[in-house]
Amino acid sequence: MNVPNSTISTILRKLDFDDLHDWAGAKIVNRGKNYVKHVDQLSHTEDNTLVAWVTGNDRYATSVRIGADGDFDEFCTCPYSWGPCKHAVAVILAAAEHLKVKRMIPSLDEGSDLGQTLRGDIEENEWLNGEREENNESGRTPSRTEAQTKLEETLESKSYDELLHLLIELSTRFPKVKQYIVESEQLASGHVDKLVRALRSEIRDRTAEAAWYNHWRGEGSLPDYSHVEDRLRALAEQGYVNAVLQLGEELWIKGNQQIEQSDDEGETAMAISGCLETVIAALPGSSLSPSEQLLW
Fold first, then answer.
1. For residue 188, what pLDDT is reported?
2. Does the pTM exceed 0.70?
3. Which domain holds residue 247?
4. Is 115 in the same domain as 199?
5. Position 209 in a domain
6. Where, by residue number, does the polypeptide cross the bilayer (predicted)?
7. Least CB-packed of 44, 60, 76, 141 within 10 Å?
8. DSSP bridge pairs for 55
């Protein structure tokens, strides 16, 4: 079978941009238009699914299953997880162009790299999720590497004065080390007001950055949320959950605004999502009632 079946053909011929906008949003659709020419090995399966490679920051395996009522169920190996991605939109538009010029869309070769990647990615996700659950149930912690063991032995062999001198030197040469030491002391002493104010300021600065990446030129600007996530987790572990929720609420509002304006492959959304997972994990320890926690 070298052409899509009647369901795919019928739906694609009736499709217009309003339908795509309703599904993915105008911004994602506009970005998807720019990726149509980067759709490769477009093919289809017997269950009304379009599949293809789409080149972005990397090469992504993308599939879009078309329902009989015209709805879409997409999957993509790109990091974007906030709804349909531009690669999925590009696959639909590429298929529509094929039909318009009466070009054949072949059936997917299940043994091809594309077929194996799409099938293997689902199996790998299932395996990883199962292993995470098994590790959590067993309570095992990752074993120390040989390098970590050697470093620990080296530090244990040094005197108090030598360790103090080493920390001072590291703090002088690496500002982030100094920041970590100061913030750790603030957490340990319970004087976290300055830390919370600094973290709120950092969230405002990070969410105000332009988030973009041009994969063709290999250049861009992606905000780094690693310190925000680390400090949110540290605050939660020390019991300052209400402060974590306040910061998380601000990150949610301003972060969504940043994501709406971003032009990357979902890296910014994933970074903010990682921070918010830490906030949600801390929620049960807050002073909110169960019903308020649910609403939050």
1. 82
2. no
3. 189-295
4. no
5. yes
6. none
7. 141
8. 59
